[in-house]
Structures are given as structure tokens and as C-alpha cells.
Amino acid sequence: MGNVNSKYLWMLIFILLLTNFLTGAYAFMGELPKVDSPKIVQESIGGPLEDVVATVGDEDITRADVYQVMRKEHEQDTLDRLIQEAVERQSKNGTKPTVERFD
């Protein structure tokens, strides 16, 4: 049991290294599924960010493109509205809550 032919040991090491290299190359070539956002975030925005939601000619528009534009153009308005709604809900008992913004 203690006598293992070194030729077979080196062949096993080579096969394992080759397998690791091929798996890495396969992943970096984009063949493995991409998960760039947690599952709950994907569900909240309607699916994975790389999903194509429209095609114009030869140009694809992804969910990430839509999200970025919405974030840039409507982020402040949405935050203001959410703060106002929270203040109104919490002010029903007659006290005014403090508001801290971190943007």
C-alpha cells in the first residue's frame, strides 16, 4: 500500500490541474450561469439583470440598463416620496419623527 508508482501520482496531479484549468476557462468564457445579484434582488426587479427586455435593431436593452436609467432619473423623487409616506404614517399619533438622509 505504501508503494505508489510516482508516474501514476504525477499523472493524477496533472489530470486534476487540467480539470481545474478547464473548469476555470469554461466559467470565464461565460458558459456557466451568471449570478450578479442575490435572488431576492432579482425577484424584486423582475428577474436577472442580464435579461434582455427589448431589442431595437441589433441593440439589446437589458434589465440592468432600465434599472440604471430609473435609478439616475427617479431616485431622489422616490426617496422623497418614501420619506414623506413614512413621516405621515408615524405622525398619526401626534409626534413628528426625526428624518436622517444618507444620500
Describe it for me?
With 103 residues, the chain is mainly alpha-helical. The chain has two domains: 1-32; 36-92, no CATH class. It is 55% helix and 9% strand. It has three helices and two strands; from the N terminus they run ααββα. A two-stranded antiparallel ribbon has the order 1-2.
Domain count, please report it: 2
Strand line-up across the major sheet: 1-2
Q: Estimate the strand proportion.
A: 5-15%
Sequence stretches where pLDDT stays below 50 over 5 or more residues: none
Task: Give me the secondary-structure category.
Answer: mainly alpha
The number of distinct helices, counting runs of at least 4 residues, comes to 3
Would you count the extended β strands for me?
Answer: 2
Rg from Cα: 26 Å
Q: Give the distance, in angstroms, between the N- and C-terminal Cα atoms.
A: 66 Å
Order of helices and strands: HHEEH
Question: Biggest sheet, open or closed, and with what strands and sense?
Answer: 2 strands, antiparallel
- Helix share of residues? 55-70%
* Overall pLDDT score: 81
User: Overall 3D geometry?
Assistant: elongated
